[in-house]
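Chain A, query sequence.
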Amino acid sequence: MRKIDRLLWIEANFGSRYLMPYEWCWSRKDISKGYDDLGGKELSIRTDVLQGDTQGYNLPFLYCAKTKQDCLDFYDRVHEDHFSYILCHSVTKKQSRHNCAAFPIDDECLMVEFDNGGQAQREWEYLPCTATSRIACGPYNQVIYNNMSYRCYKPEDLYKLGLERLYKLFWQSGCDELIWTITKNGKVVIW
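Chain A, predicted structure.
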């Protein structure tokens, strides 16, 4: 799924409140206008492919641009005809409480992996397993996954990870993995 398609899917299945405001841009002029429309200040740019049905990996990315000129310089440096650009607010390291990922381990239970904050989402994805924690979320007290026992919590008990809001939506959406960030003010941002 392309990045823009992923954003549209999140909006359709979870609602726009679970996204950072974004602008989909095709040109330098679009990026300039999008920067102004989003209010500037700590914006990021993700590149995406125009054609195809999957995300391009290792595409150029700009994290926390300080000025509009930073965004325009990035465009000038990486522009290719087969790219589009997604301009959005950044979730900075200071704003991040937890980065999380969840996947189903049976028909009612999710395995949830999370960190203790202070990481940007792009950095968190590459942390060693010793820097993250795992718990289960569902109707049980305990689950076995990959020959390991995990304590299982009800979604309402995991409000600090946003699961009281996301658990039912996860199952309704039919997805097989969900990645999100909880900001220090409690906002859930799905990636």
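The mean pLDDT is 86. The chain is about 25% helix and 30% strand.
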